[in-house]
Specification:
about 170 residues, about 70% helix
Length: about 170
């Protein structure tokens, strides 16, 4: 389990840095768009498009990172009425079902990437598949973090804060 935790932590560190990079590029493009529009009364054609694509990537990666920390909204009223051992098993089952969904997200994301590989974006002229690649890429991280959470819950190895509860 220790090696898997190290692997998960490494994947999350890489995803965190990729998120930082995408957010930085997005903010830079929006700032460039505003500055050029107001100072020069003309703006670059690619800045808005690139900012949009960086937003898509940052949301996809951020969502995958939030899963490990259990920062997604969850309703736990019924589950919290059970004894601790049963509650952990129910959470583990929910994590396993989520992983199945993430596998489907990965599969259909790959299909979407494949189907859009010949289409290009209007401003940048790159393949739209690079934008849609955010779906299967983040799905892999979601799968890894979902498996990690399921194992933690099933084994009862560590209590995670259940942030985002409603």
């Amino acid at each position: 389990m220790h090696k898997f935790k190290n692997f998960v932590d490494t994947v999350d560190r890489v995803a965190t840095w990729l998120t930082y990079i995408t957010v930085t590029i997005m903010v830079g493009m929006v700032a460039m768009q505003v500055i050029t529009r107001y100072l020069f009364h003309n703006s670059f054609s690619f800045t808005e498009e690139l900012a949009r694509y960086m937003f898509i990537w940052s949301v996809a990666l951020g969502s995958a990172l939030a899963l490990k920390e259990r920062k997604h909204v969850a309703v736990t009223v019924v589950v919290s009425m059970f004894p601790s051992k049963i509650e952990r098993r129910i959470r583990s089952l929910a994590d396993a079902l989520a992983v199945i969904f993430f596998v489907l997200l990965f599969i259909f994301g790959i299909v979407m990437v494949f189907n859009t590989r010949m289409q290009t974006t209007p401003g940048l002229g790159i393949s739209i598949a690079f934008v849609y690649l955010a779906i299967p890429f983040s799905a892999v991280i979601l799968i890894i973090n979902g498996i990690y959470n399921a194992l933690i819950d099933f084994a009862g190895l560590e209590e995670k804060s259940s942030g985002g509860e409603a």
